[in-house]
Amino acid sequence: MRIDAADLVDVLVLTPSPFRDDRGLFTRTFDAELFDAHLGSPGLSATFLQDSQSRSVQGVVRGMHGRSGRGEAKLVRCANGAVLDVLVDIRRHSPTFGRQQSFLLDDNDFRHLYVPPGFLHGFQALTPTADVCYRIDRPHDPSENLAVAHDDPDLAIEWPLPVTIISAQDARAPRWADVLIQLP
Predict the structure, then answer these.
(1) In this structure, are residues 113 and 78 in contact, taking their beta carbons and an 8 Å threshold?
(2) 114 given a catalytic annotation
Protein backbone atom coordinates (compact mmCIF):
# COMPACT_ATOMS: atom_id res chain seq x y z
CA MET A 1 0.00 0.00 0.00
CA ARG A 2 1.25 3.43 -0.95
CA ILE A 3 0.39 6.53 1.12
CA ASP A 4 0.64 9.96 -0.49
CA ALA A 5 -0.17 13.48 0.67
CA ALA A 6 -3.01 15.26 -1.09
CA ASP A 7 -2.91 18.95 -2.01
CA LEU A 8 -5.08 19.74 1.02
CA VAL A 9 -2.98 19.81 4.19
CA ASP A 10 -3.19 16.61 6.31
CA VAL A 11 -5.34 14.67 3.79
CA LEU A 12 -3.80 11.35 2.72
CA VAL A 13 -4.48 9.18 -0.33
CA LEU A 14 -4.02 5.46 0.39
CA THR A 15 -3.54 3.28 -2.69
CA PRO A 16 -3.52 -0.49 -2.19
CA SER A 17 -1.77 -2.93 -4.49
CA PRO A 18 -4.43 -5.46 -5.52
CA PHE A 19 -3.28 -8.95 -6.46
CA ARG A 20 -5.16 -9.94 -9.62
CA ASP A 21 -5.38 -13.36 -11.25
CA ASP A 22 -7.94 -15.40 -13.20
CA ARG A 23 -10.08 -15.75 -10.05
CA GLY A 24 -10.44 -11.98 -9.65
CA LEU A 25 -8.49 -10.01 -7.08
CA PHE A 26 -7.48 -9.69 -3.46
CA THR A 27 -6.51 -6.42 -1.83
CA ARG A 28 -5.79 -5.16 1.64
CA THR A 29 -8.00 -2.11 2.12
CA PHE A 30 -6.30 -0.91 5.30
CA ASP A 31 -3.06 -1.63 7.14
CA ALA A 32 -3.00 -0.11 10.65
CA GLU A 33 0.73 -0.65 11.15
CA LEU A 34 1.65 1.09 7.89
CA PHE A 35 -0.86 3.90 8.49
CA ASP A 36 0.40 4.59 12.02
CA ALA A 37 4.05 4.43 10.91
CA HIS A 38 3.40 6.89 8.07
CA LEU A 39 1.82 9.40 10.45
CA GLY A 40 4.33 8.75 13.22
CA SER A 41 1.41 8.16 15.60
CA PRO A 42 1.43 4.63 17.01
CA GLY A 43 -2.11 3.56 17.80
CA LEU A 44 -3.87 6.32 15.83
CA SER A 45 -5.56 3.69 13.68
CA ALA A 46 -7.13 2.18 16.81
CA THR A 47 -9.20 5.35 17.25
CA PHE A 48 -11.46 4.36 14.35
CA LEU A 49 -14.65 3.18 16.07
CA GLN A 50 -17.45 2.91 13.57
CA ASP A 51 -17.83 1.61 10.01
CA SER A 52 -20.72 2.65 7.77
CA GLN A 53 -21.67 2.10 4.14
CA SER A 54 -23.94 3.94 1.75
CA ARG A 55 -25.27 2.87 -1.65
CA SER A 56 -26.18 5.52 -4.18
CA VAL A 57 -27.51 5.47 -7.72
CA GLN A 58 -25.84 7.32 -10.57
CA GLY A 59 -26.00 11.10 -10.31
CA VAL A 60 -26.81 11.17 -6.59
CA VAL A 61 -24.85 13.73 -4.58
CA ARG A 62 -24.37 13.19 -0.86
CA GLY A 63 -22.88 16.23 0.80
CA MET A 64 -21.36 18.55 1.59
CA HIS A 65 -21.20 17.32 5.20
CA GLY A 66 -18.93 17.96 8.16
CA ARG A 67 -18.92 18.04 11.95
CA SER A 68 -18.70 20.91 14.39
CA GLY A 69 -16.95 20.66 17.74
CA ARG A 70 -13.79 18.60 17.56
CA GLY A 71 -14.80 17.24 14.15
CA GLU A 72 -14.36 13.72 12.92
CA ALA A 73 -11.55 11.88 11.17
CA LYS A 74 -12.54 9.32 8.57
CA LEU A 75 -11.27 6.83 6.06
CA VAL A 76 -13.39 6.83 2.91
CA ARG A 77 -13.35 4.34 0.03
CA CYS A 78 -15.61 3.19 -2.78
CA ALA A 79 -16.14 -0.58 -2.53
CA ASN A 80 -18.38 -0.88 -5.59
CA GLY A 81 -18.67 1.40 -8.63
CA ALA A 82 -17.12 4.85 -8.79
CA VAL A 83 -17.60 8.25 -7.16
CA LEU A 84 -16.14 11.70 -7.43
CA ASP A 85 -15.24 12.49 -3.82
CA VAL A 86 -14.86 16.16 -2.85
CA LEU A 87 -13.26 17.67 0.26
CA VAL A 88 -13.31 21.30 1.43
CA ASP A 89 -10.92 22.43 4.18
CA ILE A 90 -12.92 24.32 6.85
CA ARG A 91 -10.09 24.69 9.37
CA ARG A 92 -9.74 28.45 9.70
CA HIS A 93 -6.02 28.38 10.54
CA SER A 94 -5.07 25.90 7.80
CA PRO A 95 -3.00 27.10 4.84
CA THR A 96 -5.57 25.39 2.59
CA PHE A 97 -8.65 26.89 4.35
CA GLY A 98 -11.60 27.19 1.95
CA ARG A 99 -9.89 25.17 -0.79
CA GLN A 100 -11.36 22.04 -2.27
CA GLN A 101 -9.92 18.95 -3.90
CA SER A 102 -11.65 16.16 -5.82
CA PHE A 103 -10.66 12.50 -6.01
CA LEU A 104 -11.88 9.61 -8.15
CA LEU A 105 -12.57 6.66 -5.85
CA ASP A 106 -13.56 3.38 -7.48
CA ASP A 107 -13.57 -0.41 -7.25
CA ASN A 108 -10.74 -0.73 -9.75
CA ASP A 109 -7.75 0.70 -7.86
CA PHE A 110 -9.42 0.89 -4.40
CA ARG A 111 -7.78 4.23 -3.60
CA HIS A 112 -9.18 5.72 -0.42
CA LEU A 113 -8.80 8.84 1.65
CA TYR A 114 -7.80 9.70 5.17
CA VAL A 115 -9.77 12.84 5.99
CA PRO A 116 -8.75 14.53 9.25
CA PRO A 117 -11.23 16.54 11.35
CA GLY A 118 -12.14 19.91 9.88
CA PHE A 119 -13.32 19.07 6.35
CA LEU A 120 -16.58 19.10 4.47
CA HIS A 121 -17.02 15.88 2.54
CA GLY A 122 -19.34 14.87 -0.28
CA PHE A 123 -19.47 12.71 -3.36
CA GLN A 124 -21.37 11.99 -6.56
CA ALA A 125 -22.09 8.46 -7.78
CA LEU A 126 -20.68 8.06 -11.29
CA THR A 127 -21.84 4.49 -11.98
CA PRO A 128 -25.30 2.83 -11.92
CA THR A 129 -24.67 2.05 -8.24
CA ALA A 130 -21.81 3.04 -5.96
CA ASP A 131 -21.09 1.78 -2.44
CA VAL A 132 -19.05 4.12 -0.24
CA CYS A 133 -17.55 2.85 3.02
CA TYR A 134 -16.64 5.17 5.89
CA ARG A 135 -14.58 4.40 8.97
CA ILE A 136 -14.87 7.20 11.56
CA ASP A 137 -12.98 7.93 14.75
CA ARG A 138 -15.93 8.65 17.04
CA PRO A 139 -19.63 7.84 17.26
CA HIS A 140 -21.82 9.93 15.01
CA ASP A 141 -23.53 12.78 16.89
CA PRO A 142 -26.32 14.36 14.81
CA SER A 143 -26.22 17.51 16.98
CA GLU A 144 -22.80 18.31 15.46
CA ASN A 145 -23.84 17.98 11.82
CA LEU A 146 -22.68 20.72 9.47
CA ALA A 147 -23.81 20.98 5.88
CA VAL A 148 -23.22 23.31 2.95
CA ALA A 149 -25.26 23.29 -0.25
CA HIS A 150 -23.69 21.03 -2.88
CA ASP A 151 -24.36 23.69 -5.53
CA ASP A 152 -23.19 26.73 -3.57
CA PRO A 153 -21.75 29.21 -6.10
CA ASP A 154 -18.99 30.30 -3.69
CA LEU A 155 -17.65 26.72 -3.53
CA ALA A 156 -18.33 26.17 -7.25
CA ILE A 157 -17.90 22.40 -7.06
CA GLU A 158 -17.86 20.90 -10.53
CA TRP A 159 -19.97 17.75 -10.35
CA PRO A 160 -19.25 15.69 -13.48
CA LEU A 161 -22.84 14.50 -14.03
CA PRO A 162 -26.21 16.21 -13.75
CA VAL A 163 -27.33 15.92 -10.13
CA THR A 164 -30.25 13.47 -10.12
CA ILE A 165 -31.14 13.15 -6.43
CA ILE A 166 -30.18 14.85 -3.18
CA SER A 167 -31.75 14.33 0.23
CA ALA A 168 -34.35 16.77 1.55
CA GLN A 169 -31.88 17.70 4.28
CA ASP A 170 -29.15 18.46 1.72
CA ALA A 171 -31.62 20.50 -0.33
CA ARG A 172 -32.09 22.76 2.72
CA ALA A 173 -28.36 23.07 3.45
CA PRO A 174 -27.13 26.64 3.94
CA ARG A 175 -24.63 28.49 1.79
CA TRP A 176 -20.90 28.45 2.49
CA ALA A 177 -21.01 32.15 3.50
CA ASP A 178 -23.62 31.37 6.20
CA VAL A 179 -21.63 28.44 7.60
CA LEU A 180 -18.37 30.42 7.42
CA ILE A 181 -19.53 32.95 10.01
CA GLN A 182 -20.26 30.10 12.47
CA LEU A 183 -16.82 28.50 12.24
CA PRO A 184 -14.42 29.13 15.14
Answers:
(1) no
(2) no
Helices of type H across the chain: 32-39, 168-171, 176-180
pTM of the model: 0.92
Residue 31 to residue 151: CA distance in whole angstroms: 35
Catalytic residue among 65, 112, 121, 150: 65
Number of domains in the chain: 1
Count of beta carbons in the 10 Å neighbourhood of residue 146: 18
Structural element, H or E, at residue 75: strand 74-80
Question: For 101-141, how does the pLDDT look when each residue is reduced to its tens digit (9 = 90+)?
Answer: 999 999 999 999 999 999 999 999 999 999 999 999 998 88
Task: Report if residue 83 sits inside a domain.
Answer: yes
How confident is the model over 65-70, as a mean pLDDT? 90
Query: Domain containing 55 — which CATH number?
Result: 2.60.120.10
Of these residues, 38, 112, 121, 134, which one is catalytic? Answer: 134
Residue 91 included in any domain = yes
Residue 93 a catalytic site member: no
Among 9-13, 33-37, 59-63, the range scoring the smallest mean pLDDT is 33-37
Q: Is residue 133 part of a domain?
A: yes
Q: Residue 118 is part of which domain span?
A: 48-180
